[in-house]
C-alpha cells in the first residue's frame, strides 16, 4: 500500500511566525513539532522572569536554544511579532494571558486559545482579542497531548474556526471546526472533563484507601468484572502518573469545568470536589511526597501501588499488613 502523501504546507503558513504564550509541557511539544517543519516559533513564559522559578526558567531556556525557538521578554512583544498566537497556559490564566498579550496583538492576527476553560471564560477572552482586531478561535484539546503531540484531536470554535483549521491542518494539527459560535467547543471539552478528571480523582481516592485496608486486589477484580473492557491496573497507574505530575493544572481545569456546569444552571458539587482532590494531590507532590518533582523518574511508577504507598506513608497511614481477602 502506498503511503499517504505528506500535506503541502501553504506558502502563507510557511511564512508565519507562531508565538507560544506559555512554554510548559504543551508549548514545548508544539515547538518541537513545528520547528521540525521549519516553522518560525517564538515563545514567552512568565516563569522566565520570576525570581522564584529560575530553575524552571533555565530548563525552558535550554530547550528553546536546542529547538531554535526565540524567547521574548513580554507577552505584548510576543504578540506583536507573530501571525498566530497560541495560548497554552494554565486554565486559571486563560483570560489574564490574553489581557497581557492584548497590547501587542495586530489586526488580522490569529489567536488560538488551547486552554481548558468554560464557554464564558473563552467568550470573555475573545472579546479582548477582538477589540484589538485579532481573530480569536477557541480550541478544545480532546485528549492528553504527550502521546499524540501535535496530532492530538482538537475542536475549534468561533467565526474564523473553519479558516484557521484549514491553515493548521497541513502543519500536522488534527483540528476540526465544530461551530462558528464561541463556546460550543469549550463546552464539549469541559463537560467531558467533569467525567474524565473526576474519574481520575475517584480512582486515586478509592484505590489509595483500598491499599490502606489491604483490599485493593478485591476492588480491582470487582471493577474488572463490572467493566471488562478496561485494564484497571494499567489505567490506575496512568491516572496516578498524570495527576501527580500535573495535579495543579488539572485542578484549575476542574474549577473551569465547575464554572461551565454553573453556567448551565446546575449544581457544581462533583466538579468542585474533583478540583479540590486534584489540587490536594498537587500539594502533596510539591511537598516532595512522591520524590523530587524535577527528577527524571518523577511520577513514572509502573505500579500505582508505589505512589499510593508513598502517599499513605506521608499521611502516616501505612498499607494494611494483612493479606488481601479473597473476592
Number of strands: 8
Second rung of CATH, namely the architecture of the largest domain: 3-Layer(aba) Sandwich
Per CATH, the class of the largest domain reads: Alpha Beta
CATH fold-level assignment of the largest domain: Rossmann fold
CATH-level-4 superfamily name of the largest domain:
NAD(P)-binding Rossmann-like Domain
Please give the domain count: 2
Mean pLDDT metric: 90
The helix/strand class is: alpha/beta
String of helices and strands: HEHEHEHEHEHEHEHEHHHHH
The shape is globular
Low-confidence stretches: 1-7, 321-327
Please, how many helices? 13
**How large, in whole angstroms, is the Cα Rg?**
21 Å
Arrangement of strands in the largest sheet: 3-2-1-4-5-6-7-8
Distance between the termini: 50 Å
Largest sheet: 8 strands, mixed
As a percent range, the share of strand residues is 5-15%
The helix fraction, in percent, is: 40-55%
Descriptive report:
The chain has two domains: 13-180, Rossmann fold (3-Layer(aba) Sandwich); 187-315, N-(1-d-carboxylethyl)-l-norvaline Dehydrogenase, domain 2, CATH 1.10.1040. It has 13 helices and eight strands. It has helices at 11-14, 25-35, 54-67, 75-80, 94-101, 119-131, 145-148, 161-168, 184-213, 216-226, 232-263, 269-286, 304-314, and strands spanning 17-21, 40-44, 70-71, 84-87, 110-113, 135-141, 154-157, 175-179. It has an eight-stranded mixed sheet with strand order 3-2-1-4-5-6-7-8, with helices on both faces. Strand 5 (110-113), helix 6 (119-131) and strand 6 (135-141) form a beta-alpha-beta unit. Helix 2 packs parallel to helix 3, helix 9 packs across helix 11 (232-263) and helix 11 (232-263) crosses helix 12. The protein is globular. Mean pLDDT is 90; it is low at 1-7 and 321-327. Residues 17-158 form the 6-phosphogluconate dehydrogenase NADP-binding domain. This is NAD(P)-dependent oxidoreductase.
Amino acid at each position: 500500500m502506498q503511503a499517504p502523501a505528506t500535506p503541502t504546507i501553504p506558502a502563507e503558513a510557511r511564512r508565519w511566525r507562531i508565538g507560544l504564550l506559555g512554554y510548559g509541557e504543551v508549548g514545548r511539544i508544539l515547538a518541537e513539532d513545528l520547528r521540525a517543519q521549519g516553522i518560525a516559533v517564538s515563545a514567552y513564559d512568565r516563569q522566565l522572569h520570576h525570581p522564584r522559578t529560575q530553575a524552571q526558567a533555565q530548563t525552558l531556556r535550554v530547550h528553546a536554544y536546542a529547538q531554535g525557538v526565540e524567547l521574548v521578554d513580554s507577552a505584548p512583544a510576543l504578540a506583536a511579532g507573530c501571525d498566530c498566537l497560541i495560548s497554552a497556559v494554565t486554565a486559571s490564566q486563560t483570560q489574564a494571558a490574553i489581557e497581557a498579550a492584548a497590547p501587542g496583538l495586530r489586526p488580522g492576527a490569529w489567536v488560538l486559545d488551547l486552554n481548558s476553560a468554560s464557554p464564558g471564560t473563552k467568550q470573555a477572552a475573545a472579546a479582548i482579542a477582538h477589540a484589538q482586531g485579532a481573530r480569536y478561535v477557541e480550541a478544545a484539546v480532546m485528549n492528553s497531548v504527550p502521546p499524540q503531540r501535535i496530532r492530538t484531536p482538537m475542536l475549534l470554535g468561533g467565526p474564523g474556526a473553519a479558516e484557521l483549521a484549514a491553515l493548521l491542518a497541513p502543519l500536522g494539527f488534527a483540528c476540526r471546526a465544530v461551530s462558528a459560535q464561541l463556546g460550543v467547543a469549550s463546552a464539549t471539552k469541559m463537560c467531558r472533563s467533569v467525567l474524565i478528571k473526576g474519574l481520575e480523582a475517584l480512582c486515586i481516592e478509592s484505590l489509595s484507601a483500598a491499599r490502606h485496608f489491604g483490599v485493593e486486589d478485591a476492588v480491582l477484580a470487582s471493577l474488572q468484572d463490572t467493566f471488562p473492557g478496561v485494564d484497571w491496573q494499567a489505567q490506575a497507574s496512568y491516572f496516578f502518573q498524570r495527576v501527580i505530575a500535573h495535579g495543579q493544572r488539572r485542578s484549575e481545569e476542574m474549577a473551569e469545568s465547575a464554572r461551565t456546569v454553573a453556567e448551565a444552571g446546575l449544581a457544581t458539587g462533583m466538579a468542585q470536589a474533583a478540583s479540590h482532590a486534584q489540587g490536594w494531590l498537587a500539594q502533596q507532590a510539591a511537598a516532595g511526597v512522591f520524590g523530587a518533582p524535577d527528577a527524571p523518574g518523577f511520577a513514572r511508577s509502573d505500579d500505582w501501588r508505589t505512589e499510593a504507598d508513598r502517599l499513605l506513608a506521608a499521611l502516616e497511614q501505612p498499607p494494611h499488613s494483612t493479606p488481601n481477602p479473597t473476592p
